[in-house]
Amino acid sequence: MYIKTLSKSGEPLELTLDELEVFSTCPCCGAEVPQPDFWENVKNDPDFDSYTTEAYCARCSSLSVAERHILTKCRSVKSEAEHIGEQLLRGEMTCSEVCQHLRELGEALDAAV
Ligand SMILES: [Zn+2]
Prior knowledge:
The protein has 113 residues and is α+β, with helices and mostly antiparallel strands. The protein has helices at 38-44, 58-61, 65-89, 95-112, and strands at residues 2-6, 12-16, 23-25, 32-34. The strands form 2 sheets. The protein has a two-stranded antiparallel sheet with strand order 1-2. Strands 3-4 form a two-stranded antiparallel sheet. The mean pLDDT is 89. Zinc ion is lined by residues 26, 28-29, 31, 56-57, 59-60.
């Protein structure tokens, strides 16, 4: 098996699957995590599921479960806060609505921690 893609010069390029470099995203901090054993895992583990298997980056691997949980929450809050800010930029929310949503975000964080 192989995939077809285009080279930088636009020429068609065929790559065998094991030539492909596979990466995942750390579920905790969002860092890119190389998966050098991906094809080995696919070959050797019939239950291996690339959609549900999570791999932490080197930094997050050394954290406790509680620390990973907090970091995951930080990412989520950051993403929600950016979304709220974007709505202000697009004129879909007023300043007071934005403040209200940010307060609710803080309250949700308090409840989760
Ligand atoms: Zn990480």
